[in-house]
Amino acid sequence: MTNLNVSLIGVPTDVGAGTRGASMGPEALRVADIHAAIAAFGADVRDCGNLAGPTNPNLPAVGGFRHLQEVAQWNEILHEAVYAELRAGRLPVMMGGDHCLAIGSISAVARHCRSVGKKLRVLWFDAHADLNTATMTPSGNIHGMPVACLCGHGPEVLTRIGGHIPAMLPAEIRQIGIRSVDEGEKRFLCELGVEVFDMRYIDEVGMRAVMEQALAGVDENTHLHVSLDVDFLDPTIAPGVGTTVRGGPTYREAELCMEMIADTEQLASLDIVELNPALDHRNMTAELAVDLVESLFGKSTLMRMHRQTRGKR
């Protein structure tokens, strides 16, 4: 790891989701001892506590969006918190909360990249493409829209967060584990040219080949951001999510993803979202998420050479 000053930021809200409960995610991760898990790798870990924002009004969609103003407020607050930690030279770990919060975290990361002249690479681990818009969404839930908003397609109150529209380019994101995409999203993915490694492709070529492609071009001048939606995982091992989709990656496939990211030594920010303790069994999904975080920070079975030196013996 190139940065061992880590800041945990709790964001206890589910305003962007259709199922309540993700607001309890930050505390479930703390119960699973995420602080000690990261500190074990020699990191200076600071728990910044939970951000405060509007409550969930639990209202129906208006104009294609549920809770638009509340989502915007939470993301503005989160943007400032993440950007402050990045400016201080720390690695922010956003503990959500639902995936609409990626608008705030990734817009802050993109803003930081622009200010320091780094390339941005976002690895989006998810069962869903999250590329809906007001005209395509079947529900109005904004946790299904963050990629669209970050790419400049959405209400200005969300796309302008960070002061740059779009916050990121479609070429800067790689989506991994996708297996539930709405019809409108399929066309939009093609139009934007987002690189998607869906579960069929993973089945065909294997997770190692997928990760090699997703990480291609990552170097010392890359800010690598991981946005981990726990519904990326197969629900048999991660039941504590509001939008389960069968046929996700296995435990070992998920661990391999995180281990290969750790090998790059370029991880610089992290989202953990959609963990819903109300739907979990004895906190097993939170514990699995923390296990994956350990791999992101360097846990491995054996001592391994760095990626750039491997094969030179």
TrEMBL record:
The alphabetized UniProt keywords are: Arginine metabolism, Hydrolase, Manganese, Metal-binding
Q: What is its EC number?
A: 3.5.3.1
Q: Which CDD domains match?
A: Arginase (cd09989)
The cofactor remark states: Binds 2 manganese ions per subunit.
Pathway given for this chain reads: Nitrogen metabolism; urea cycle; L-ornithine and urea from L-arginine: step 1/1
Q: Name one GO molecular function term.
A: arginase activity
Named cofactor requirement(s): Mn(2+)
Alphabetized SUPFAM superfamilies for the sequence: Arginase/deacetylase
InterPro entries to which the protein is assigned, alphabetical: Arginase (IPR014033), Ureohydrolase (IPR006035), Ureohydrolase_dom_sf (IPR023696), Ureohydrolase_Mn_BS (IPR020855)
What reaction(s) does this enzyme catalyze? L-arginine + H2O = urea + L-ornithine
- EC category: hydrolase
Query: According to its UniProt record, which protein family does this protein belong to?
Result: Belongs to the arginase family.
Please identify the protein, giving its name as recorded: Arginase
Taxonomic source organism: Aromatoleum evansii
Record gene name? rocF
